[in-house]
Design goal:
Rubrerythrin, domain 2; Large ribosomal subunit protein bL33; Ribosomal_zn-bd; Ribosomal_bL33; mainly beta; 1 helix; binds zinc ion; four-stranded antiparallel sheet
Length: 61
């Protein structure tokens, strides 16, 4: 029983234009311990040409 399921690859999509700008890895175990829900990060969106709030999604394009 190694590290299976501990890490999860998620995509970050712009909440405004819905374009998938980033792909990241998150540690599911840590996230669960924090008790947080969906990851939300402010990042640069090249489509909006400004910093927007990005939300995680498990749907990778
Ligand atoms: Zn955008």
């Amino acid at each position: 029983m190694a590290k299976k399921g501990a890490r999860e690859i998620v995509a970050l999509v712009c909440t405004v234009c819905k374009s998938q700008n980033y792909v990241t890895e998150r540690n599911k175990v840590n996230m669960d311990l924090k008790g947080k829900g969906k990851l939300q990060i402010k990042k640069w969106c090249k489509r909006c040409k400004k910093v927007q709030l990005h939300k995680e999604t498990s749907k990778l394009k």
